[in-house]
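User: Can you model how D-Mannitol-1-phosphate sits in this protein?
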Amino acid sequence: MSVDTAPRLTREPGTAAPVRIVHLGIGAFARAHQAWLTALADTAGEWGIAAFTGRSTTVADELAPQGGLYTLITRGADGDRAEIVDSIVAVYPGSDIEAWTALVSAPTTALLTLTITEAGYRLGADGALDTTDPAVRADLEGFGTDRAPETAPGRLVHGLAARRASGAGPMAIVSCDNLPGNGELVRAMLADFAAAVDPGLADWIAENVSSVSTSIDRITPRTTAEDIETVAKLTGFRDASPVVTEPFFDWVLSGDFPAGRPAWEAAGARFVTDIEPFEARKLWLLNGAHTLLASAGRLRGHETVAEALADPVCREWVEAFWDEAARHLTAPELELPRYRAQLIERFENPRIRHNLAQIALDNVTKIRLRILPVLRAERAAGRTGEAAARAIAAWATLEAAAQPGREITEILADLDPQLVDEAVLRARITGLIAELLAR
Ligand SMILES: NC(=O)c1ccc[n+]([C@@H]2O[C@H](COP(=O)([O-])OP(=O)(O)OC[C@H]3O[C@@H](n4cnc5c(N)ncnc54)[C@H](O)[C@@H]3O)[C@@H](O)[C@H]2O)c1
Ligand SMILES: O=P(O)(O)OC[C@@H](O)[C@@H](O)[C@H](O)[C@H](O)CO
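Assistant: Here's the modeled complex, given as structure tokens:
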């Protein structure tokens, strides 16, 4: 059936689970991962999700007429499988502060989950809330007035203040963004914001809000118009907002859930006491390789991860980066040879079109968190960290082209002043830039 003639996907009345989870930043990934796992785990229909967009209202406009239903296409190398996911039961634009406040402060709400992108946390290089950010300042100054908060920290603290006032009790916040120690970062972000507006509220949050850390993994590119056609053919429905993802998924969580949670382990999630090695494995090997390819692959004329990995030069650079990272990922439960083999298979999936330009967004933050730690660990061990340095050199080469007139040393200093201050390192990176330009 073509999308022009297919009936729209809509929810049957009376089939929505009660809201017990509020999600901020509904996009493609949350629907490929935690909303899908919630639907699988929640066989009794007790854990409905109320989803809010972060900035744009697009997903709310698309999903609300469908009662929150959407199609998830699992795209393997050999074909597509479509399923309709029903765990999202209400969708709102992020600007709907009335709905947000009512839902976060409801005693029935047990969890807040987040996919607001790395930039959405509004943290500075030191991991604390960036109070020099004009949007953060505006939310701090407007707190407690009629002005609606606009940043994620502002909205979260506003909602938690209402929860404290309503006496709804403790809850958990689960960050599902690709940041190391994402639970700790949420805790710091909330503590910094609340302390600046109401120290009593900061104490209440510290005692009543559990920040759960997670490592989240499922490659989910942006949906295309062609995907909407594919869904109509597979299901017979017109879905304005389907999501396409890969077969692989992984979710590791660590923390407390004072008001309960879905039995996510029944759907494949793992609960651990020490999440740090799992986070480092995923962020350095998967996201680090993505970040490397986002610069090096584009420099060599490639558009997608699969195209770049098919280039033996890029493949060698990725493997060399993994060798460096692997020396600092020593916990046996990480099963690195297996994880690396899976990564190659996932990156090579020719039917997942993961654009390097999309992955390159907010590159500076990503390099700081995924490449620099490997470079520092290698140098601390007395080695050069050549492969990590090459990823930085590739990024700096593209930046120099995009910012004519700026010296390479200025560009590197924006990333990390140490890259310029240490003469040996600076010379190595500039040497690698010359090598990349010569190719
Ligand atoms: N796509 C993936 O493969 C994948 C996998 C693992 C983790 N993640 C995490 O999920 C995040 C979102 O990915 P996605 O694929 O859903 O992207 P998306 O573009 O589909 O959705 C992003 C959501 O974040 C919101 N947002 C963007 N900037 C914001 C800001 N400054 N403040 C508040 N909200 C903001 C958007 O409005 C939207 O609701 C990633 O940044 C990453 O941290 C993604
Ligand atoms: O937007 P980011 O960099 O956090 O990540 C881009 C991709 O590396 C990322 O979305 C991966 O596909 C994902 O982390 C896989 O689990």
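A couple of observations from the model: Residues 25-30, 53-56, 115-120, 152, 177-178, 216, 218-220 surround nicotinamide-adenine-dinucleotide (ligand 1) (CB under 6 Å). Residues 19-273 form a domain with the Rossmann fold fold (CATH 3.40.50.720).
User: Helpful, thanks.
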